[in-house]
Every structure is written in structure tokens, then in C-alpha cells.
Amino acid sequence: MPKSLLLLSLLFTSCIDFPNQYAPSRLRRADTGPDPRGLKPYIDMKDASSLTQCAWGVSLSAFDGEKRKAAPKAALRFHIVNPIGNKLSVDFVSSTRQSIRFKVNGRIVGQISADGPSHFEAPVAASDFVSGTATLVELDSDSGISLLRVGFQRQ
């Protein structure tokens, strides 16, 4: 009898949903992906080595010899040595009028409404970079964009 009570209680406790048992979403923390030392601070999509910088949502094949298609939610990784005085710079093409948001390590740094060839620049605070980790740049759009160049430049 005591064994059956123990078994019954174990069975019922295994069905309980424990809230907040999972880590926070990727939008709230810095990317801890591969060692950032092999990454660059700025890339052209026509460069074959740009594939190592893609985190998710970016097509592995280039088209027109210079662009890569980015899904509505896409991200790339970069290596920033000096976090002071950087700006995010993105050259892209949008096939339809849409709003695109840009995030650095989960914080929105800017938004643009674009249709056709476009350029986006925004300063990034030094506090948005995490020492020793790759910097994650997320692109959030309505229907995806075609990337030409992405990265960080000194102001």
C-alpha cells in the first residue's frame, strides 16, 4: 500500500507545470554563439566569408552576385573590439514598402520605412556591447529584405 501511494504521488507531481523554468528568450541576452575572434565588424554579402557571420534567417546562397535574402526575422553576428563610438550601418533592398527594425543584442537601435534600395545608420551605445561575446544584430521586417552590407563603423 505505501509503495502505491508513493508511485501515485510521483505520477501527479510529474504533471505539474513549473513556471519560469526556461532561460529568457534570445531577445533579452547577448549572443554567446561561436568564438567571436573569427568574425568581422563589417561584411559585404558578396564575400563568401560572410556566411560565418549569419546566425539565422539569412539565405546561404547569394543572388545577383552581391545580395543575400533575409527572412522577416534574421540575425547576424559581429566581432567588435572597441565598443566606443560605433554606429550600425546597413545597406539593403526592400521589394515592398515595409517597416524594418534593427536590434543590437536585443535592444532596438532604430527603425526605418523602406521601399527599394535603402541605407540605415544609427549610433550604438557602448553599453550595448558585451565583452568577449559576439554582437548579435537582429533584423525584424514584415516580408524580408535583401542584404548588401551590414556591420559597425566608427563614427
List keywords for this structure.
155 residues, mainly beta, Jelly Rolls, seven-stranded antiparallel β-sheet, 7 strands, elongated
Number of helices: 1
- Strands, total number: 7
Biggest beta-sheet profile = 7 strands, antiparallel
The assigned structural class equals mainly beta
β-strand amount: over 45%
- The CATH class turns out to be Mainly Beta
Alpha carbon gap, first and last residue: 75 Å
The helicity comes to under 10%
Stretches where pLDDT is under 50 for at least 5 consecutive residues are 22-28
Roughly how many Å is the radius of gyration?
21 Å
Can you walk me through this structure?
With about 160 residues, this protein is mainly β. The chain has one domain: Galactose-binding domain-like (Jelly Rolls), CATH 2.60.120.260. Helices cover about 10% and strands about 45% of the residues. It has one helix and seven strands. The chain has one helix spanning about 1-15; strands at about 40-45, 55-60, 70-80, 85-105, 105-125, 135-140, 145-155. Strands 1, 2, 3, 4, 5, 6 and 7 form a seven-stranded antiparallel sheet that branches. The longest helix is centred in the first third of the chain and has 12 residues, at about 1-15. Residues about 20-30 have low confidence and may be disordered.
